[in-house]
Amino acid sequence: MQFADIIIPLGVENFFTYSVPTEYEGTVAVGGLVVVSFVKNKRYTGVVYALHSNPPVGFETRPIERVIEEGFALSASHLKFLLWLSEYYMAPPGEVTRAALPVAMRLESYTSLCLAADWQEDGTGGVELSLMEREVIGVFRQNGEICMAEVEKLLRRKDVYVAVRSLLEQGIIQVKESVDDLFKPKLERLVRWARVFSGEELGKIIDSLKRAKAQQKMLCDWIMYCDEHHTDSLPKAEFTGVIGNSTAALKGLCERGVLEVATIEVSRLDSTGEEVQEMHALSGEQERALEQVRGHFKERDCVLLQGVTSSGKTEVYIHLIEETIRQGKQVLYLLPEIALTVQIVKRLRRVFGDRVGVYHSGMTDSARAEMWRRQNGENPYPVVLGVRSSIFLPYRNLGLVIIDEEHEASYKQKEPAPRYHGRDAAIMLGKMNGAKILLGSATPSFESYQNAMSGKYGFVELTTRFGEVMMPELMFVDVKEYRRKKMMKGSFTPVLYEEMKRVLERGMQVILFQNRRGYSTFLQCNHCGAILKCKHCDVSMTYYRFRNTLNCHYCGSLRPVPTVCEECGQGHYVNRTPGTERIEEEVKQYFPEARVARMDLEVMSNKVKFRALIEEFEAGNLDILIGTQMVSKGLDFERVKLVGVMDADSLVSFPDFRAEERAYDMLMQVSGRSGRKGEQGKVVIQVADRENRVYRLVEKGSFHGFYSFLSREREMFHYPPFSRLIQIELRHVNEYSLRNAANELARKLRERLERRVCGPAEPEVARVRKMYRIQVLIKAEQGLSLSKLKTFIRQKCDELLKGESGKGLKVYFDVDPL
DNA sequence: AGCACGCCGACT
DNA sequence: GTCGGCGTGCTC
Question: What stretch or stretches form a coiled coil here (predicted)?
Answer without folding.
Answer: none
